[in-house]
Write a structure and sequence with these properties.
- There is one protein chain.
- By secondary structure, this protein is an alpha+beta fold.
- 30% of the residues lie in helices and 14% in strands.
- The protein contains ten helices and eight strands.
- The strands form two sheets. Strands 1-8-3-6 form a four-stranded antiparallel beta sheet. Strands 2-7-4-5 form a four-stranded antiparallel beta sheet, with no helix packed on it.
Length: 353
């Protein structure tokens, strides 16, 4: 009679298969990190916490918004558009006449009077503002040579400057490129009661630009010597690091409407004082329907005149205050027990499952 040997439990095929499955499993090893079970702060957003948070934001934001608006309103600003006033009436009818006037050689100085609306304390910043001028155009922005501006030995680094890279005889233009070529060349001078008002043009550019981007041994060469003159000329005996009008202009603007610093007036202008302004209307913005404005402005602890920041703070603060009040009313009128399971959908509609 044959006998059958029963395998021991330690060598059972089932246990061997289970261990093989465990070894071949792609399931990651258990850890509190992978299972997101590490100790953590898990606040419960109770109605009181939510209302308190909204109220805190409103308490902080509304005073900041009010202070920002007051600071902006304390800034005294005079803005005068002169591109139309400074051309003869006979040339204002269409764009072609305006372009013809501005391109015709000759003195284009015009004299205007500005009245100070409120006392202006120094420093009073003098800006020129251009509208519809796209300094951010890709080809325009790339048309410069930073190596040439920094180092006199890199005079021939003009590969990115075409068409303003060299003259017809092969001489290099320093500084090259369309940005420098189109340098703003309108001029402003001020007087009060026939007494000249000094405009300080030192320190109007960024110190980092003067010291690191424009070389002290780099001098203008063959600049605005071609057939078509784009803008202002530069003094060939002054290094680029000291030509601050150029440095300010070379820091291109991101938007088509921008202001650039022309100079600073460093004494008071009294209320209702009349300033005589002599404007040299030389820059051609008529070809592209651009606008030119002269801006005189003081500053506050927040900077220039700009209501956006104050309005933004007040808007956010007011919205948070409104939400805090709304949640408070809902909480008082129709309170609800926190964590009440009767509000779950399957408890409210038991017939769904």
């Amino acid at each position: 009679m044959s006998s059958t040997t029963v395998p021991s439990s330690s060598g059972a095929p089932g246990s061997a298969d289970a261990s093989a499955v465990r070894r071949n499993s792609k399931r990651p090893k258990y850890s509190k990190f992978t299972q997101q079970e590490l100790p953590a702060c898990k606040p419960i957003l109770t109605p009181r916490w939510v209302i308190s948070a909204f109220m805190l934001v409103s308490i902080v934001f509304i005073p900041i918004g009010v202070a920002s608006l007051f600071a902006s309103h304390d800034v005294v600003e005079i803005v005068y558009r002169y591109d139309l006033d400074c051309i003869p009436a006979s040339n204002r009818s269409n764009r072609a006449d305006k372009v013809q006037y501005i391109q015709t050689p000759g003195d284009k100085t015009c004299n205007k009077s500005l009245t100070v609306p409120k006392r202006m304390k120094p420093p009073i910043y003098v800006y020129y503002q251009l509208d519809n001028f796209y300094q951010n155009h890709r080809r325009y922005v790339k048309s410069r040579s930073d190596q040439q501006l920094r180092d006199a030995s890199s005079e021939g680094e003009v590969s990115d400057c075409k068409p303003e890279d060299m003259l017809s005889n092969g001489s290099y233009i320093v500084p090259c490129g369309l940005i420098a070529w189109s340098l703003f060349n309108d001029t402003y001078s001020f007087s009060i009661n026939s007494a000249q008002v000094n405009v300080n043009k030192k320190g109007i550019s960024w110190k980092s630009d003067r010291e690191h981007k424009f070389g002290k041994d780099v001098y203008p060469k063959n600049f605005q010597s071609g057939g078509l003159i784009g803008g202002a000329k530069l003094n060939s005996s002054i290094p680029l690091s000291e030509q601050e009008d150029l440095i300010v202009w070379m820091r291109t603007a991101a938007l088509p409407t921008f202001r650039k610093l022309y100079g600073k007036i460093e004494h008071d202008l009294e209320e209702n004082q009349v300033i005589q302004v002599s404007l040299g209307n030389n820059y051609n913005t008529y070809s592209f329907n651009g606008k030119k404005k002269l801006v005189l402005s003081t500053t506050s602890w927040l900077g220039g005149k700009n209501d956006f920041l104050g309005i933004a703070y007040l808007t956010v603060g007011g919205l948070c205050f409104f939400l805090a009040m709304a949640f408070t009313i809902v909480y008082l009128v129709k309170p609800r027990q926190l964590g009440d399971p009767s509000y779950l959908s399957w408890n409210r509609n038991p017939g769904w499952h």
